[in-house]
Amino acid sequence: KEQVFSGVQPTGNLHLGNYLGAIVNFVALQSRFSCVYCVVDLHAITVWQDPAVLTRSIREVTAAFLAAGVDPKAHIVFNQSQVAEHAELAWVFNCVARLGWMNRMTQFKEKAGKDRENASLGLYAYPSLMAADILVYRATHVPIGEDQKQHLELTRDIAQKFNNDFRPQIEAKGFADGFFPMTEPLIGGPATRVMSLRDGTKKMSKSDPSDYSRINLADDSDTIAQKIKKAKTDPEPLPSEEKGLEGRAEADNLVGIYAALSGRQKAEVLAEFGGGQFSTFKTALIDLAVDKLGPITAEMRRLSADPAHIDAVLADGSERARVLASETMRHVKEIVGFVGR
Ligand code: TYM
Question: Could you say which residues bind ATP here (predicted)?
Answer without folding.
Answer: 9-11, 17-18, 145-147, 194, 203-207
